[in-house]
Amino acid sequence: MAETFYVHMEFKSKSGNWSINLPFLCNKCGLCCTLDDFLTAGLIKSQPQNKQAQTRVKALYHELGELWVADPEKYDQYITHTPCPFLSGATCSIYEIRPEGCRQYPNTLFGMQTMDCEPLNRFKQQQAALNRGRASTKTYHFITQPLKSVQFSVQQYQRCVEKLVKAGVTKEESALFEQINNMGQDS
Fold it and tell me: What is the mean pLDDT of the chain?
């Protein structure tokens, strides 16, 4: 299964507590991959054999340092409007060794503030739709970790699906929602 982020939502109701996992499905558009985001994402998980990435990062830091000294305003403009230097098309060229902040997206400061990411906007709308009118607790996780167990009745699950459809869930998001909730459900 893909490495992805999800929110575990626990609800309190008169008939008992129940929970559901809502996944975030990245469409790999590259919009979140700016130089500014890369610089705040932490260090790359570079291994000694990946000297090319290390050399590129050192050169980047040197170039940006010179730009900062010359004109801090131009530096700010440059880093916020320049794609990540490791973005190739809409794909991360250092995906396996990308910084922790990039791995954690969208559960980062720069991630949750993103306004132009369609999947993230849908994810936020889906959370709001599921949460509407209910007291809930949210915890954020990654599918690479053991899935949080979920507890729900067939009726609660169907109601969640209905709300997600109204919130604009895509076919791919719906399939992942079904998959992670069936995998995480207590037997």
Answer: 87
**Closest alpha carbon to 99 in 32, 145, 46, 153:** 46
**Is the distance from CB of 147 to CB of 15 less than 8 angstroms?**
no
| Cis peptide, bond prior to residue 119, ω within 30 of zero | no
Q: What is the pLDDT of residues 101-135, one digit of tens each?
A: 888 888 877 677 778 889 999 999 999 999 987 88
Q: How many CB atoms lie within 10 A of CB 8?
A: 20
pLDDT at 147: 83
